[in-house]
Design brief:
This protein is α/β, with parallel strands linked by helices. The chain has twelve helices and 27 strands. It has an eight-stranded mixed β-sheet, sandwiched between helices. Strands 1, 3, 4, 6, 7 and 11 form a six-stranded mixed β-sheet that branches. A hairpin with a 4-residue loop joins strand 17 and strand 18.
């Protein structure tokens, strides 16, 4: 009986409401819900999504912006809602799944700022026959606390007591739509329907891009240009670009990570300096793009084909890029395209070079997400049994998840994953570890990604790890396929990482470097470099502090590629007309 009760609680707290009837709660548990939440809605009859209840002792910002991996995080408790009648109050019981406290019952009595948000889900009828509930992107880059159309409540101060009566709350606000950026002389915006992705998702899916045109593009009508593809997270517009002088009235901000004041002014100055360089003499005339490819799982797709995410690799490479090249006079050949980026973008830059060796002519991957799954951050997916704790017969030593450049740990790997579980079940948190599952894992019987490890216990699934290895372990694939593609990869692979990367990503780069150095016939003839005590986003510039060099991806790698392409372009390639 006890196991049945526990099973019922978990299915109710972490699972989904499926009918009007609330099951009878066993007498050993709280009879009354802690909250009743009403979501006003005009039209429709049923709602679906993740209901997020947040409690905070910090009044400096709204609670929806205070849920984090670090020690300053506030409290989050959540339930799945499926097929719930419009305007009927939703009960939230004490056992709603929480982070960093696991249940509402553990919250100390006291005064809190209360805010509730509903992350709306929709049904997707996928091309593989599965029907799943997911949060569609609405132009914001898959951010649950900024997603247009999500209802939320105005923060209110409450006296919370687990033993007191229920709190009733109505969601009285709606996150507004996002304005589309406007075209300018240099920056254009494109959006195109992807046939491949629309077929996969069972609805119209669009890819977008922000296109930075070279100086003189309007005047040199016979010139065709190389394509610089800057991979990274969802961009609202082309980043690091500013045609106006920095705003001297801007109040200097303080960035704790870097320990500096006035970083907002530095960013504006760097963006303006890039504009001056881009339009000045001697800078290579290329077309630079940043791609918009959010999915229901994350702010971008990781730019590869995936069982859960869809054929984004093919859609970007064979649909979007040729569309942009045709529209803006790109050369339109693989030798005249290259990729660069950091973090997620670093992994993507390397991945597309690996998977499409003929379609790209160079990748510059900075601080890439794990490129060797023997170092999936601090987890060896092929040998470790548990992701959260070191293997030991008698003790539980947690694995760190985030550190600073001196090694000070601010969160564990378990804590990071439990936050995601509170934000969304079935890999639907929209966060980092869940998107890796959505990209790398096979589809489960329920239509959702198979877990690489149990999200609550950290126990690793060896079968899923084997699938990851054969399909997405980039270092392993390079080693496995070097005999076949080595000549196509030669000279094109450049890796950069700080040796104190916040997420321990340098460990995978070390392993990949060993594989690359051992290559023969041909030797990889590329570059691997490390920044001393450099944190995340270090990109190979030893002359500047990390907080400056991370703002210079475009000027660094476009110029670097323009020189290197001279040594790896086909006979007769046009290397001059775009160097005016």
């Amino acid at each position: 009986m006890k196991n049945q009760v526990i099973s019922w609680i978990l299915s109710f707290a972490i699972g989904s409401f499926s009918s009007l009837v609330i099951p009878q709660i066993p007498s050993s548990f709280d009879q009354e819900p802690y909250f009743y939440i009403t979501i006003p809605q005009d039209g429709g009859s049923l709602i679906h999504g993740r209901l997020l209840v947040m409690l905070s002792t910090d009044s400096t910002s709204e609670p929806r912006f205070q849920i984090s991996d670090g020690p300053g995080t506030q409290l989050l408790f959540a339930i799945d809602v499926e097929n719930w009648p419009v305007n009927k109050p939703i009960p939230v019981f004490a056992h709603a799944y929480g982070y960093p406290l696991k249940t509402l019952r553990e919250v100390p009595p006291g005064s809190y700022y209360l805010q509730v948000l509903f992350n709306r889900y929709e049904y997707f009828d996928l091309g593989d026959g599965h029907r799943v509930l997911l949060p569609p992107d609405r132009g914001e880059g898959q951010q649950w606390n900024l997603k247009p159309g999500n209802p939320y409540s105005t923060p209110v101060k409450v006296a919370f007591n687990p033993a007191a009566s229920s709190i009733h709350l109505t969601l009285d606000q709606i996150i507004p739509s996002i304005l589309e950026p406007e075209d300018t002389k240099y920056v254009k915006h494109v959006r195109m329907r992807s046939e491949l992705l629309s077929k996969f998702w069972g609805r119209d899916v669009y890819l977008g891009a922000h296109v930075l045109l070279p100086e003189g593009w309007d005047d040199h009508l016979e010139t065709h240009y190389p394509l610089a593809i800057f991979h990274g997270h969802f961009p609202n517009d082309f980043g690091g670009w500013r045609t106006d002088l920095p705003d001297l009235s801007l109040k200097p901000d303080f960035i704790a990570r870097f320990g500096i004041t006035g970083y907002n002014r530095m960013q504006q100055q760097e963006a303006y300096d890039f504009y001056k360089m881009w339009t000045g003499p001697d800078f290579p005339r290329v077309i630079a793009i940043e791609i918009q490819h959010p999915t229901p799982f994350y702010d971008d797709s990781y730019a590869v084909n995936s069982e859960n995410n869809g054929p984004y690799g093919d859609a970007i490479t064979y649909e979007l890029i040729p569309y942009i090249e045709q529209k803006f006079r790109g050369i339109g050949q693989g030798w005249a395209r290259f990729t660069y980026g950091g973090s997620t973008g670093g992994w993507e830059a390397l991945a597309v070079q690996v998977y499409y060796p003929d379609e790209y002519n160079g990748c510059y991957a900075a601080c890439p997400d794990p490129i060797d799954f023997r170092a999936y951050c601090l987890v060896n997916l092929y040998e470790d049994r548990n992701a959260y704790f070191l293997d030991s017969p008698f003790k539980k030593t947690p694995r760190p998840g985030h550190r600073d450049y001196l090694g000070n740990v601010s969160s564990t790997l378990e804590e990071m994953n439990l936050r995601e579980l509170a934000l969304g079940t079935r890999s639907r948190s929209g966060q980092q570890w869940d998107i890796w599952e959505a990209v790398y894992s096979p589809v489960g019987q329920d239509g959702y990604p198979q877990r690489i490890w149990d999200k609550e216990t950290g126990i690793i699934d060896a079968d899923v790890a084997s699938y990851w290895k054969e399909n997405y372990d980039l270092a392993y694939i390079l080693k496995r396929d070097w005999h076949k593609n080595g000549e196509k990869w030669k000279g094109k692979i450049h890796l950069y990482c700080g040796d104190m990367d916040n997420y321990y990503l340098n460990n995978a780069v070390y392993l990949a470097e060993e594989i690359l150095k051992e290559t023969t016939e041909p030797h990889y003839d590329g570059e691997v470099d490390y920044g001393d005590r450099a944190e995340h986003c270090w990109n190979g510039d030893h002359s500047q502090p990390n907080y400056i060099s991370r703002l210079r991806y475009n000027q660094m790698f476009i110029q670097k590629w323009a020189e290197e392409v001279k040594t790896r372009s086909p006979v007769g390639a046009d290397l001059k007309s775009w160097r005016y």
